[in-house]
Amino acid sequence: MSDRNPKNTDHTDAVVLLHGLGGKDWNLRYLGRRFDRAGLAVQYHHYPSRTGNLEEIARGLAETVTRTEGRKVHLLGHSLGGIVIAKMLETTPPMNVGRVAFLGCPIGGSAAITALSGNRFGRRLLGPVAREGIVERRPRAPVDRELLVVAGTLPVGIGLLTGLPRPHDGWVQVSETRIEGARLVTSRAFHFGLLFSRNVADLLCAFFSEEI
Predict the structure, then answer these.
(1) How far apart, in whole angstroms, are the C-alpha atoms of residue 8 and residue 43?
(2) Pair 43, 2: CB distance under 8 Å
(3) pTM above 0.85, yes or no
(4) Is the preceding omega at residue 128 within 30 degrees of 0, hence cis?
(5) Model confidence over 125-182: pLDDT tens digits?
(6) DSSP assignment, residue 168?
(7) Which of 79, 80, 160, 212 has the smallest C-beta neighbourhood within 10 Å, fewest atoms?
(8) Nearest alpha carbon to residue 39 among 75, 78, 77, 12
(9) Number of H helices, E strands in the chain
(10) Where are the alpha helices (DSSP H) in 14-110?
(11) May I ask the CATH architecture of the domain 2-208?
């Protein structure tokens, strides 16, 4: 399911935004408004983050990206959204994909998520998509792309309660977001707060506008 911006033309770059586990499109609206003001066409791709099958979800994203008009279609994934993007690029990469940005994405796994998946309550909370994509069969990191990784360092979340090694954003350790060859930028933000950081928004606008 997606929300298409009518400003989208063949002469404008587009950005497709994906939320994380249990997220909604409204979580991404702050970033979307900033991208719109930067002259980028904006589209939100909603997916069933707690149900379904990761490969099917990745195919759905590929269909959205293929249909999206624009000179280039950049991708932004928060947390599990980055895992979906990585799975799509691993299995069914569309030809029109431009730059890729991950926010707080546990592409290297997650100690917190792995611990949660070890009990019945945690498995129900996470659902099969997160368990598959983060714990059981993580997709390969997209090392052949222009990729920006942003990791939070404000330890507000389950990681603070469980003694997760710092630096982390409350859920994901900075070390779990690293991708070889990708630029890694840290921000003093917690996991969900990455979506509402002015500094992160400025960085992403510059990245997708190819100013950096």
Answers:
(1) 9
(2) yes
(3) yes
(4) no
(5) 889 899 999 999 999 999 888 999 999 999 987 766 677 899 999 999 999 999 999 9
(6) B
(7) 212
(8) 12
(9) 7, 7
(10) 29-37, 54-67, 80-91
(11) 3-Layer(aba) Sandwich (3.40)
